[in-house]
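Let us begin with a simple case.
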Amino acid sequence: MDKLRQKMKMIKDLGVQLGGIHFHCGSGQNGAKNFDEAIELARECIKIGRQVGHSMEIIDIGGGLPAGELDSELLETLRSTKNDPLGYQIISEPGRYLSSRSCLLATRVIGKREKQNRKCYHINDSLYHSFNCVLMDGVSFEDQSDQFYSRFNHNYQSELGQLKNGSMFGMTCDGYDVIVKNLMMPELNVGDWLIMGGMGAYTYGPRSNFNGMTTLDSIYTHL
């Protein structure tokens, strides 16, 4: 902590007043350990900062909160900041938590072929568009058998039929544009639509026009 005290004092001597401390545990954390350690370190920064003359009134716990529900251990860790005798304000950046499930993706099968008895489908999206979460966020559909739930045809719902192992590719000419190599899926045809949920944070946002392929259109609606 001696180096931290020296830096805090140097900042003070430069005439800069620190209003608080910020940390970021990293994107998509699962569990409470990193937040617990970061909060304790931030509290020490608050104490030292005040000792050398900084106001230190805010702790920004950053982002990194997981998508969906927060587990009980993480909630308990975050509650430890409530009514803390140090008396600081907590702010956060819960982007993924709020927006990860805000969008549905509608994409279409634009190509179909068979290779070594495996069905291979191409869709009009890709790793460089909405599925960049596979590259950048560690999302994987590999070897899953529960990704297809319903089939609709002319407004009528029908059975999925037998599921077989297949592959799905993006629309670009990049040979690495493989969304999933092994996925249990029903027989699909060119022109079929696929509707996918949970396509909010780190999907729609970082999309690009790689290979000259335009990104998807946005449709806003109230559900």
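The second case is a distinct protein. As before, the sequence precedes its structure tokens.
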Amino acid sequence: MLVAVLVAASWAAAGCGARRATVGDPERGRSLLAQYQCGGCHRIPGVAAARGTAGPTLERFADRQYIAGHVPHTRVSLERWIRDPQAVVADTPMPDLGVSPRDARDMAAYLRSGP
């Protein structure tokens, strides 16, 4: 019993098998994803007209272990990725959209909420 509790606690801390805790305003983040036109490249559930195919789908993004295929998925790394993707992965085709730290926090909150 104690082992099961410890395993569940460690999985929760790592974000495995459960939605990730959010910091920020997910609803505002959903609106910002539309405002920054992220759907021009990505399919994003719940975001109007977000049906792009140039970038990967962001469906079930909260369940992913990595960002851009190899950056560990944490709240901080996702916010940094949204703000300045080339600083995270130098040759990424994702453009720098001039996203503010607050906007990145809210956009990350939406993506991490499990759309």
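Strands lie at 66-67, 71-72. The radius of gyration is 15 Å.
Keep these points in mind for the review questions at the end of the chapter.
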